[in-house]
Amino acid sequence: MPFPIHRPRRLRKNPAILRMVRETTLSSDDLIHPIFVCEGKGRKEAISSMPGVFRQSIDHAVADARETHRLNIPAVILFGIPDQKDARGSEAYNPDGVVQRAIREIKSAVPELGGFSPAVRRPQIIPDGSGQRDRGPEGGVGRY
């Protein structure tokens, strides 16, 4: 006997219910490609916990962004791995930080590509031992 035997129409009663239960569609418009940037030139190191994902220098990140655009993916999200870290997370807002330089290079090479960059700051205990949390600039996601 062919499937389905009975096709109930109750889920097609009105447009609101139909929107909620219709087939899910996924296209390249729904994707954001993550790029992990690090200092240096010509660097591309595999991230073992994420197969197919690399920590790469800005020159490789620009090439990756071009390929992302060619694949019709509308945006990237940049995560930076700075060489220097401090208790305030100051590289997150350094105008010459690795992510900030990567943004400038990528926007210069692929101006149509959208992007995001979280200002990742892990709260640190202040080195004076007071037990107070650092009250530096708050992290957030910036669009470029």
Task: List key phrases describing it.
144 residues; Rossmann fold; 6 strands; 6-stranded mixed sheet; alpha/beta
Known CATH architecture of the domain at 31-86 and 93-119: 3-Layer(aba) Sandwich
Helix content: 10-25%
Biggest sheet record: 6 strands, mixed
Q: How many extended strands?
A: 6
Termini distance? Answer: 56 Å
Order of helices and strands: HEEEHEHEE
SS field, number of helical segments: 3
Mean pLDDT: 81
Low-pLDDT segments, ≥5 res:
123-139
From the alpha-carbon coordinates, what is the Rg to the nearest angstrom? 22 Å
What kind of assembly state do the chains in view correspond to?
single chain
What top-tier CATH class of the domain at 31-86 and 93-119 fits best?
A: Alpha Beta
Range of strand content: 15-25%
Alpha-beta classification: alpha/beta
Categorize the overall geometry: elongated
**What is the CATH topology classification name of the domain at 31-86 and 93-119?**
Rossmann fold
Lateral strand order in the biggest sheet:
2-3-1-4-5-6
Give a quick precis of the structure.
The protein is α/β, with parallel strands linked by helices and 144 residues long.
Summarize the structure in words.
The chain is of the alpha/beta class and 144 residues long. The protein has a domain at 31-86 and 93-119: Rossmann fold (3-Layer(aba) Sandwich). 22% of the residues lie in helices and 20% in strands. It has helices at 15-21, 58-70, 98-109; strands at 32-38, 44-46, 54-57, 75-81, 114-118, 141-143. A 6-stranded mixed sheet has the order 2-3-1-4-5-6. Helix 3 (98-109) links the parallel strand 4 and strand 5. Helix 2 (58-70) crosses helix 3 (98-109). It is elongated.
